[in-house]
Design goal:
It is built from three helices and nine strands, in the order αβββββαβαβββ. The protein is of the alpha+beta class. Strands 2-5-4-6-7 form a five-stranded mixed β-sheet, with helices on one face. Strands 1-3-8-9 form a four-stranded mixed β-sheet, with no helix packed on it. The N terminus is likely disordered. Its EC number is 3.5.1.44.
Length: about 170
């Protein structure tokens, strides 16, 4: 029984390696590794353990400005990235509760340069991701958020493992 499970989550002989640029979104199957580099942006990973499908988004801002009247979904914004995930769940006939969800990023890239009463982009990105996931019924399993510096994130969809390297600014 356990050998079958170990083989089930074993690295495939061939896999697609996707690198997400800021604002990009990807959803796929077990033969995929998704990577990104984050600063103040946030990445969300979703993984369905039974079906071994999932995805990652890399968003830059919580939402569009009020005067932005584009109607197509844009992965640069947390609100739209979550909607892109919801479309994929609808296509795969799965539910938010079926997924392991992890959040990463939101690092301050300019520590010590904050001005009083200014809006913190990293903090707003973190808050937006958490709020949107909760509103849509997702439960966050793990997160590595805030602080300073950048993060390298690697997501192996055959196992659901997410590898993280955080380089803080001192």
């Amino acid at each position: 029984m356990f050998d079958h499970l170990n083989n089930h989550f074993r690295k495939p002989d061939f896999f697609i390696d996707i690198f997400l640029q800021p604002g990009e979104f990807y959803f796929g199957d077990r033969e995929t590794r998704v990577r990104t580099l984050l600063g103040s942006c946030v990445a969300i990973t979703l993984w369905h353990p039974r079906l071994q499908i999932g995805g990652m988004c890399h968003y830059l801002l919580p939402s569009r400005s009020a005067n932005n009247d584009k109607h197509e979904l844009d992965g640069r914004y947390a609100h739209d990235a979550i909607r892109l995930f919801m479309l994929e769940l609808e296509r795969s006939k799965t539910w938010p509760i079926d997924y392991e969800v992890k959040l990463f990023g939101g690092g301050n890239q300019f520590p010590g340069q904050e001005k009083p009463n200014t809006i913190s982009i990293p903090e707003n990105n973190i808050r937006a991701g958490r709020n949107m996931l909760t509103q849509h019924g997702f439960a966050v399993k793990a997160e590595h958020l805030g602080g300073t510096g950048h993060r390298n994130v690697i997501f192996d969809m055959w196992s659901g493992h997410v590898w993280l390297r955080h380089v803080a600014i001192r």
